[in-house]
Amino acid sequence: MEKGIYTALVTPFKSSGEVDAEKTEFFIERQIKGGVKGVVLVGTTGEAPTLSREEKDMIVERAVKKFKGRTTIIAGCGSFDTRQAVSLAKRYGDMGADFLLSVAPYYNKPDDEGMYSHFAAVADAAAAPVLLYNVPSRTGSCISLPVLGRLKTHGNVAGIKEAGGSISFLSHVCALADDDFTVLCGNDDMILPALALGASGAVSVWSNLEPAVVTRLAQVFWDGDCVTARKIQLSRLKLTDALFADTNPLPIKAALKYAGLDAGGCRLPLKSMRSENASRLFSLLDGREPV
To answer: What pTM value is reported for the model?
Structure first.
């Protein structure tokens, strides 16, 4: 998998609440121009839990038809039902997605053997390489290091998006990285530390707003300019904190609208940012300096 920044894309909605397919394509085009290596569709930031199967299919299919070859298309195929995850992995691989992102099963909290068997079933069935997705704060479960070590040897597991927020755990995950197993950071406030540990890039929410800034952070690090990379990461630290002050994707959608890039609201049960958090976010957006 090519190193770089991959944007966890928002799903734009019309005022009627329908998916805005044309605006989705606008946002993908904007990401390409901003230098990202690819986009994650129908994932957490894309509000997958409140998208219908038909809406997910439409988003992935249109993106593949219009953008495959110009950017890497990663389709979310996560579910707490292994059968459903397998079905999505088959479907989006057959549609032409370049990679499939499969989140750890949530709510039902499997043990290690259940976790391994779930991902092995998805990888066995998938028609494209699978990226594991570890985000314990969302799922209530964690892909343990022993399970990760076993899954790494599966020929159709390409890597992991690690979003646990622990530098210690991330360090152990990065120790598993090699040419056949990619580690992508899933926390915007930890991109530079992750790169220093050997991660191949990040899946970013922040890059919905500032794709060129996030890609520059990674590129200057790889070019050997750690001072500038540090400056970029720290200059946006308060902003990335504000982008997660309320449940994602509420803040990033609010930020996009404030910046003149309206992606609509979020579907219930996500409603709106708390007013004090929104005010702080907008103040930070106004106070940004070029980097």
So the answer is: 0.97
